[in-house]
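One chain given next:
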Amino acid sequence: MAEAVFFDLDGTLADTAPDLANALNRLKAEHGLPPSPCEILRPQVSNGVRGMLASGFGLTPEDSAYPALAARFLALYEEALCVRTQLFQGMDNLLEELDSRGIVWGVVTNKSERLARPIIEALGLQRRCACIVGGDTAARPKPYPDPLLHACDQAGVEAVRSAYVGDDLRDIQAGQAAGMVTIAASYGYQGSGRPIHDWKADHIIKHPTEILALL
């Protein structure tokens, strides 16, 4: 039986796309551009600021305009981090069951910790969460194993007795590198561009509560 389950945040634990899309569209409005539909932006959420600016402005980090737009995007997002963000359907039931079984759980995301923590708090999960590890918490972000190993240290569990759930290829790569059981969330954003069945995760789930049968 698993000692712990760790979750990616965007597209796995919670649907953060509406608030990220709102920030991007506010930025586009400042530049006189029409809004982008949330459903068009949703697959890019897993790619963070880079994905959102690529979709909304056609920019890459190498473009001279990128740094200023990225900073403004993050400022707008931070003003309204958790307005329409919510847990995916069934996630609250899963977390309650993990708590009742004595299985610790935490969040490991590539979103910066200063943004991740307020979201977890707004969702009412901070006191139940064993750890919140951001992309800037450990020495290297996912797909490196560093954040997951850091999470294990914080939660007091062994990586080989833990599972990691994510909706992007880098999540599965990080979990594999850490020696964890890997679970790919097909209900998430899947922004890598490669089909989820090619990620070589140990398991693929269509709904959060399916995790219970795997522990």
User: Anything to note?
Assistant: The longest strand covers residues 104-108. The CA atoms of residues 29 and 210 lie 41 Å apart. The chain is about 40% helix and 15% strand.
